[in-house]
Records
---
Amino acid sequence: MFILFFNFSLLAQTGEEQTGLYFIKKDSSGFKLTLAGANHLASLPLKCITKEFPNKTSHTSNSKDDHILLPAALHPAFYGCFDWHSSVHGHWMLIRLLKQFPDLADGEKIRTAIRQNLTEANIQQEIRYFDQPNSASWERTYGWAWLLKLDEELSGWEDDDGKEWKEMLSPLTEKIVHLWMTFLPKQTYANRTGVHPNTAFGLSLAYDYAEHSKNDIFKQAIIKASNDLFLKDKNAPAVWEPNGSDFLSPSLQEACLMQRILSPAAFVPWLNGFLSLSDIKHLAILPVVSDRKDLQIVHLDGLSLSRSWSMKKLADALPANDARKKILLRSAVQHLAAALPQVVSGEYSGEHWLASFAVYALLQE
């Protein structure tokens, strides 16, 4: 078992410190992933992107013919890692690590696995799935968001495999963008949950994709929807967080979305009306995870990771004299430190997806 040992209280005394998974920065501001850590984290989605069971398909059957199909028949590109979205962001994570660490020990195994999944025939079946009756809203918007993040990661990568995978994936990406463009004018109300349907998280990743791909029509649709849904919000009920199965903070995700779409001059006044200093102090309290074998309770480890990257992003947008900035930066490190050991806990309920959240948090800079 690969175990992390971390004593946060010693951090300031030890300077830059190395564990098997990461470097602790000299100024105690965060972590840097090591090659050994990348190797181990990569092994988690690598062993599950072709692991068909257990599986949660969330499939709506239209007849007995499609009711009896196995996961790999329903979703030949993204059938592993328990569910579709975890498979998608597992692919994203492996590609992100291949780009960041070209010398990954399992690099060729990763490439072989992705080649087998991202084929023209498999992607066409994924597209057909969305065209079935009752399937247009499937994986909306969490899975959609991670699919766009995967495409974004492949874009501009000067790698022969990467170029081929980008070409294979593009028709599905176009399908997702079309579904989103069709949905946005109809979305009268935001989903303010801490799990998959969270509107702000989905729009944040979609915005990043639209900006990176220079799809201005999609970007402007996201900006309009974000303003319509969130611009008037005040006094976030942050004290109600977290719910018992959250892996996202609704208030932090909304703030991170608005930080993307508003100018710096407009964002800080908006945030002043949305999250107070006492709200930030409440969100800085680490979540308690009582049972990591429970598929819902273990979400709270993911909450620590998503809070970490959200707090860092918000802190970076605040002026130096803002009292919230220091709390956010300190809490971002504390949440990451608390969650990293759990990524390699050996429990499949968490490890089939938490590694992606860890990599997103560790490599966001």
Note: Residues 1-17 have pLDDT under 50 and may be disordered.
---
Amino acid sequence: MDRSELESLPSHELHDRALSAARSRLDLGFLWSLIKAVPVAHAAEGNIEEADADIASLSALLNDALHSGEGEVAEGLRPLYIEYLEAHG
């Protein structure tokens, strides 16, 4: 898919596609990038407490990464999903 096609997809679809591609490629680098980006996305939406909790707890961070295709966090992570799918989708 080209960038314009990716841009037209809903955030949860970008999330699902990016995670599927990363899993099939065993791309821990992307998953780690996602884990690091989730607290930033939470902070950008104004939820500093959630960002702090993510940083303090790796289990929360992993859970957030796996569910980062939902809600406002998914919207904040759209550029990361699109960039990854352009390169590897």
Note: The mean pLDDT is 90.
---
Amino acid sequence: MFTSEQLTEGEIYTRHDLREQFNIKDATINTGVFRPLGYRSIWLFVTEKKPKDLEHLQDRLEEDTLYWDGQPSGRTNKLIIEHEAEGYELLVFYRKHKTEYRKSGFRYEGRFRYVSHRDGQPSHFVLRRVGS
């Protein structure tokens, strides 16, 4: 089952909203990459303008293309690269800065797919919106 079936593109969701809607107890929802238990979905929480301690990460959404720096440890790189082959959807929640939306919410941008990446610490990914 996919979580995208229960979300609306363009809507603003807080992590609290998503916890409630999907009955999430796992604290890793507070990280940038999250897999909700019982679903074939991967959620990316992306903030373009980072706090000082994360300024080295460069993320930006340009129309239907997301340029995204993965986690510095590289722990989730394989998950992102192989998401389609493994039967997972990749969902993007995006905001320009932490206070852009109420209660630090994110705009749900929809389903994306892996296009390419360049290895590094972090790796640099290109993801494209499904249907574009």
Note: The chain has one domain: 3-129.
---
Amino acid sequence: MINTLFCNHIQKLVSHKSQLSMAAGKKKSWLKVLIFIFFQLLMVFILLEILLSVIYFQKYGNDSLASIQLYKKIKNKFKSDNTYDIRNQQTVRPGSSLKINAKIAAEVKESNIEVYEPWLQFKTADFKGQYVNIEGALRKTAPDASYTASADTVSIYFFGGSTLFGFNVADGETIPSQFVKLYKEKFAHGKSIKVFKYGMPFYYSHQELMFLSNLLFTGYNPGLVIFLDGLNDFRFVKASYYRQPFLVIF
């Protein structure tokens, strides 16, 4: 009788231990699966980050992680037109629709990306859109020239910050484009002119002088240079005082 009870007790202990071992094994198996999934997702994230950085976002992104920049870009695509800054758009183009105003504001906002530029720290990245076009630090001007019977053509370089760049206005609404239109009206038989718009958001007068100097040293030869400045020299007072680009000081 005692032997039978003892054997039954041993069997229960063995069975219980076996159940505990099976449960522990299951826990270990689930843990291994979770760890495996985690590392797989991590590898996918790292590969995506590398791919995005190499192809685009390392050069043009403002965030430290390319994936964050991609998320923000996708998020902005699905925002309502009303979320864009369209202040004073009706004044600029009376009678225009809210949709067109929002589209122009959205393109300006999307194009507002800076890339590294030697001596100057940054410049506006290339951008191609319906209303905003930038290539090689030049914002498109429409029209950009007034050709007459004159044999000579005067090259006119415009420098300035976001006002000169044309924030929230289309290529054909910027100050240099209006300059050409007025010149055509006033001096239809004057000298031929061609304008080049080097306006950059955040630039101030000293930075623009460095920009002009760099162009002159690399072979550019403007006939006339026009600077439009004021706000950024006072807004970024530390940058003006220390003669450093905006992003160095701030």
Note: The longest helix spans residues 2-60.
